[in-house]
Amino acid sequence: MSLSTAYLILSGAIICEIIGTSALHASAQFTRLGPSLVVAVCYTLAIVGLAFTFKVIPMGIAYAIWSGLGIVLISVVGWTVFGQRLDAPAVIGLGMIVGGVVVVNVFSGSVTGH
User: What distance, in Å, lies between the first and last C-alpha atoms of the chain?
Assistant: First the structure.
């Protein structure tokens, strides 16, 4: 698998995690069947996709990207879809997470094993 394919799979895993987490909120503590099934399917796809990326991207790096971008994106979904507030410290912290993901991917040789 190429590095670009691994990143494509990782992107899909992140999207599945965002959909699954959004459905988790909508499941009302697993009392609604539809959203609960979406949670199970999406989380399964997210974990399987993440695992496949380990063939090319080191585990710690792949997980850092998956979890970091997942945190940021689900915060945006919470703000835009569910009306949850993000104050200035939250936005700054989320920006730092994005910065960390960028630093790892742009400057670290760990991503490609160099």
Answer: 17
> How many Cα atoms occupy the beta-carbon half-sphere of 23 within 13 Å?
18
Residues 3 and 112: beta-carbon distance below 8 Å: yes
Q: How far apart are CA 10 and CA 1, in angstroms?
A: 12
Which residue's entry shows tokens 């459905």? 23
Q: Which residue has the tokens 């730092």?
A: 96
Q: Which 8-state DSSP code applies to residue 82? A: S
CA-derived radius of gyration, the chain: 15
Locate 81 and state its tokens.
């879809």
Question: Tokens representing 53?
Answer: 């990326």
Q: Is 22 helix (H, G, I), strand (E, B) or coil?
A: helix
Q: Is the pLDDT of residue 114 over 80?
A: no
- pTM: predicted TM-score of the whole model, two decimal places: 0.85
